[in-house]
Specification:
By secondary structure, the chain is mainly α. The protein folds into two domains: about 55 residues, Arc Repressor Mutant, subunit A, CATH 1.10.10; about 140 residues, Tetracycline Repressor, domain 2 (Orthogonal Bundle), CATH 1.10.357. The protein has ten helices and no strands. The N and C termini lie far apart (about 70 Å).
Length: about 200
């Protein structure tokens, strides 16, 4: 019988999942999702290959589990950052800066885009979790329109445009260039949704 990690079977299962997610994340950054095998993931995680199948039936299921976990963690962090802010413009600024700071491994991985290597069913499941974050932006914009901070607009068009702008960025990792890029992106998004933007003198 394999040795149990942690104080209970539940802890063992959770810690094993975390090891698998960490291994997947590292391997994806190095070689891309399409090039990785479950055997490599198990070896990098320090678990037996059969342990992987106890949690996920295949590599795509592991990816969905990883993305679900990452999205839930990120959405909770984002919501905490927004909880104490009432002004819609400042809420949108916070959303933009949080999105810029987020590094989604599954967007940055080398190799073909995930859309080209995943089944349609898995693509749909991944999309479900992206919607969680989009809903937060939609709520910010809806409240802003209701309060008069933003003009009336079609959110079915605006929301994906804003997120596309944020996910396709090339923001430097550090230094004044990073601060300037974040500030310019915030200004761009605010103008795009029709918010008043104060330009420094």
């Amino acid at each position: 019988m394999p040795k149990i990690i942690g104080g209970s079977l539940h802890e063992h299962r959770e810690q094993t999942r975390q090891k698998l997610f960490a291994a997947l994340s590292t391997l994806m950054a190095e070689q891309g999702f399409d090039a990785i095998t479950l055997a490599e993931i198990a070896q990098a995680a320090g678990v037996g290959r059969t342990a992987v199948y106890n949690h996920f039936p295949d590599k795509e299921a592991l990816l969905v589990g990883f993305i679900t976990h990452e999205t839930e963690q990120y959405a909770a962090t984002l919501q905490r950052a927004l909880d104490d802010i009432d002004d819609p413009v400042e809420r949108l600024r916070t959303y933009v800066s949080q999105q810029i700071q987020l590094k989604r491994v599954y967007h940055l991985a080398p190799g073909p885009e995930l859309r080209s290597v995943l089944s349609r069913q898995t693509q749909a499941r991944v999309r479900e979790h992206v919607v969680v974050v989009e809903r937060i932006l939609r709520d910010i914009l809806t409240d802003g329109i209701a309060s008069g901070a933003f003009p009336e607009q079609d959110l079915d068009t605006t929301v994906p445009l804003v997120n596309a702008c944020l996910s396709g960025r090339g923001v430097p990792d550090e230094g004044p260039e990073r601060d300037r890029a974040i500030e310019q992106t915030e200004t761009f998004v605010l103008r795009a949704v029709g918010a008043p933007v104060l330009i420094p003198a």
